[in-house]
């Protein structure tokens, strides 16, 4: 009887422990340094040894310890996440998904909510730099591309929900212009007599606020309709929503920058004694958890926040563990989720 060339090591791993590179090295019959080289995809390892190491990893169900890789490169296993508008349900969903993925990968997320203010963003980032964090995630930053470029030169950085970033920095986003065109077209085709855009006046190149308003205006021009663009600040959207409903009233469709604004518009519609969908159509952006609640039933753009979160952390890991320097611009697909807030049961002229 031929002896099994792969002795069983898994019995040694108690619940809550993980196999190490040393365990893989012993099983593969190589040094721990060779295992480390294979993990880093170093081309100096022969195909024969690489095959043995990979087979041992699979046998032991070994997973790369990103925290250890970070420490080996003299960086901590901390990931700094900077965001504004923490009350925005999209940001809450996004950051929670990032937190889960970080913990799965042996990384420790540090979350810094700031005001909608570039100086506060800069202060939070500086603190993370001083902490020597392994990577940075900047969600909808207000900083200029020049400032972000300097940060990316020091620390692996991913920008989220901006449509482009400078060289040396990764970016993960949806195509905001195309997605808002889709939302606008839906309201036009649903028969609303005027379509209004309600968003943020945030003139930052590549920012979602700029691209979403551009998508709205492009579709309105394409369909030969007048564009009506209204702006608000994040903390004044309830008042802006009431003004729009009072001014335009029945027959209006409202394209909103995000679900948070859209919910404020829905509240204003109901307060005015009108029916969401039948009288005023509302479309949000983000498909947050709350948008699908039966009492809300918000039509919205789904930009797949869980995918955004997972891909963001994967890019951070790739930079930390493998030393990648080439920038990645990852645009994820979006879809329109139609619900009651834009469904017209009464198709009479308004």
Based on Cα principal axes, name the global outline.
elongated
Q: What name is given to the CATH topology of the largest domain?
A: Rossmann fold
**Please, what is the CATH homologous superfamily of the largest domain?**
Response regulator
**Largest beta sheet, briefly?**
6 strands, parallel
Helix and strand sequence: HHHHEHEHEHEEHEHEHEHEEHEE
**pLDDT averaged residue by residue:** 88
The CATH C-level name of the largest domain is: Alpha Beta
CATH architectural label of the largest domain: 3-Layer(aba) Sandwich
Unreliably modeled segments:
1-16
Termini gap? 86 Å
Number of strands: 12
| Count of discrete structural domains | 3
Gyration radius, in Å: 25 Å
Tally of contiguous helical segments: 12
Strand content: 15-25%
Could you give the order of strands across the largest sheet?
Answer: 2-1-3-4-5-11
Which secondary-structure class do the elements indicate?
alpha/beta
- Percentage of helical residues? 40-55%
Describe the overall structure:
- The chain has 350 residues and is an alpha/beta fold.
- It has three domains: 19-63, 434 Repressor (Amino-terminal Domain); 71-174 and 305-331, 3-Layer(aba) Sandwich (Rossmann fold), CATH 3.40.50; 176-304 and 336-342, Response regulator (Rossmann fold).
- It is built from twelve helices and twelve strands.
- It has a six-stranded parallel sheet, with helices on both faces.
- α1 crosses α2 and α5 (89-104) packs across α12 (305-322).
- The longest helix is centred in the C-terminal third of the chain and has 18 residues, at 305-322.
- Residues 1-16 have low confidence and may be disordered.
């Amino acid at each position: 009887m031929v002896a099994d060339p792969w002795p069983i090591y898994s019995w040694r791993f108690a619940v809550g422990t993980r196999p190490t590179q040393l365990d893989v090295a012993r099983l593969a019959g190589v040094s721990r340094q060779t295992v480390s080289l294979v993990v880093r995809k170093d081309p100096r390892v022969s195909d024969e040894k690489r095959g043995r190491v990979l087979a041992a990893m699979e046998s032991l169900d070994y997973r790369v310890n990103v925290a250890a890789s970070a420490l080996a490169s003299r960086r901590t296993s901390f990931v700094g996440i900077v965001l504004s508008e923490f009350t925005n349900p999209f940001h809450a969903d996004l950051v929670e998904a990032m937190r889960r993925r970080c913990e799965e990968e042996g990384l420790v997320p540090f979350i810094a909510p700031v005001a909608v203010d570039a100086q506060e963003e800069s202060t939070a980032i500086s603190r993370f730099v001083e902490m020597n964090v392994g990577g940075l995630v900047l969600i909808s930053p207000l900083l200029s591309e020049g400032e972000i470029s300097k940060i990316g030169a020091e620390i692996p950085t991913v920008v989220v929900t901006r449509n482009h970033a400078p060289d040396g920095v990764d970016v993960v986003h949806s195509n905001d212009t195309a997605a808002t065109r889709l939302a606008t077209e839906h309201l036009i085709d649903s028969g609303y007599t005027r379509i209004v855009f309600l968003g943020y006046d945030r003139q930052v190149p590549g920012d979602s606020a700029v691209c979403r308003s551009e998508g709205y205006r492009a579709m309105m021009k394409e369909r030969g309709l007048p564009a009506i663009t209204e702006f608000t600040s994040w903390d004044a959207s309830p008042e802006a929503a009431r003004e729009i409903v009072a001014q335009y009233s029945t027959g209006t469709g409202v394209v909103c920058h995000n679900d948070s604004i859209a919910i404020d518009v829905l509240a204003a519609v109901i307060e005015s004694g009108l029916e969401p969908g039948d009288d005023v159509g509302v479309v949000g952006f983000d498909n947050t958890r709350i948008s699908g609640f039966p009492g809300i039933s918000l039509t919205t753009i789904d930009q797949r926040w869980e995918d955004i979160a997972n891909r963001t952390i994967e890019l951070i890991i790739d930079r930390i563990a493998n030393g990648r320097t080439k920038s990645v611009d990852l645009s994820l697909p979006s879809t329109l989720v139609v619900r009651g807030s834009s469904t017209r049961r009464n198709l009479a002229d308004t």
